[in-house]
Amino acid sequence: GGAGDAKEACLRQIQLDLERTFPELQFFNADGPYHTLLRDVLWGYSCRRPGVGYVQGMSHVAAMLLLNMGPEEAFVCMVNLLDRWHFQDFFMVSMPRVERYAHAVNTMLARHLPKVWGHLRGLGVDSRIYLLEWWMTAFSSVLSLDAASRVWDMLIVDGPSALVQATLGLFKVLSKQLLRMDFDKALYLLTHIGEAEVGADDLVTAARSFTIDYDEFFAVVEAQHPPPPPPGP
């Protein structure tokens, strides 16, 4: 029946994604030591939150947790983490909500890195395109494991302001490249950020150079009629 088919489809998608999760580690592929653990955590989450189910990208979140704790703790952490902050909106791909977060990120870019913001705005780069994947997995699917782990350290210690800092940090590190790029090259870089090989230390130093008040950031997300960010210089 319908429920059985949905379960089969969910398990098939999980199975496909296990092979794509940090493939360079070979921990999560069919012969890897964490293969079954990752599958069980993801299947457990999809049963626990049937309204969300399994969504591509969750395997990276679960894998980050499994690399740092046992499977039971990883499952509890995943349920708690994905119930918080922006994660539900992003995994449900609620585009009106993602658009609000993108607007708030644009506002921060305009304030802290006006040249970069002005250039991207002039090119017409839509921040929703890259932000969805960056924030959905808290950068774990787009950065090297080393760099992503450092962002996760910040996230666990400082909360969601770390994601805003990491986003601004990436733009700061890549600003010289981005300012020389046309639309196609800029969009490619931002949607293939792993290829830029951003160093973990450089990213954290850049991210920490920004002071972010998450309550203020979230107020911009929640503003009923968000004003457009100020134009670039």
Automatic annotation (TrEMBL):
Pfam family for this entry, one: RabGAP-TBC
Domain Rab-GAP TBC: 1-159
PROSITE patterns: TBC_RABGAP (PS50086)
InterPro entries noted in UniProt: Rab-GAP-TBC_dom (IPR000195), Rab-GAP_TBC_sf (IPR035969), Rab_GAP_TBC_domain (IPR050302)
SMART domains for this protein: TBC (SM00164)
Protein origin, superkingdom: Eukaryota
GO MF annotations, alphabetized: GTPase activator activity; small GTPase binding
Transmembrane annotation, as ranges: none
Signal peptide, first to last residue: none
Protein name as it appears in the record: Rab-GAP TBC domain-containing protein
Species: Hemiselmis andersenii
